[in-house]
């Protein structure tokens, strides 16, 4: 029998992170979880192991997949175990990537395994993500699982204009964090080979690696068609909207990807997309259509860019239908999933919530 006093106070939901600079996804994600059902707080490692949280939700748990120190990470896992056993804390992972693309110093099978064993559930942003998770980590099949979608990005300053094919001038754009796996050096190299004279490519974003930035600049050379705007700080959201709106289409030359926020951001500004046929991008194309998501096989090439430019001239649709990616859907999906976990906990372990415990101490 469920102890009804368990829900006298809202369960404490700790999100890591609650908000993130340079990526509005986490703020939109947390903001659309029902605040009348959960007390949403920023996760703090100092509170782990002290029974402060009812649910902990990790967005990018790099510490467990590529720890800087295995010893330090094992201590964190021990504190997770303590909270799970003695306080009934539930741990969830929002699977943006199956492992970090970059970052961290040590790929650790041990800490990865222990982290997955301590999870109560996973939130996936595509069906492809579920298949890949189960392929790489078969034990994850037993976890409580929610498959939802990657929410669309909302306008910060001005709403997007409808696409006007007659105004297109072959202005292509790459934006976002510039990392090795995103293949920007190859994109710039192939753009220089493009035979179409009347086109341009802009690359804008932060590149944390000096050597990679140097190679990209070398690849661009003195080609006037290529503009590099590589910064040390994230591009403000309102400025980024203006940059996207001033281009005709967006190119993702990635070598690997699971889910893509850049893709949803681009489509949300009514910009067609060129991307590789990998990860969840074919799934995205099925939903919004091939006129908006153009996929290529293999590496990005000059021929691929030229084919994309030719296809853009034939496009007539003013905007993609992104209604399946509304945040109200994501928030509703996640709220129901979290409630199912807290209800399961109440039925099995009728103990006070973390918020009640903190009030008693």
Automatic annotation (TrEMBL):
SUPFAM superfamilies: UDP-Glycosyltransferase/glycogen phosphorylase. It comes from the Bacteria. This is Glycosyl transferase. It comes from Mesorhizobium wenxiniae. The lineage of its organism: Bacteria, Pseudomonadati, Pseudomonadota, Alphaproteobacteria, Hyphomicrobiales.
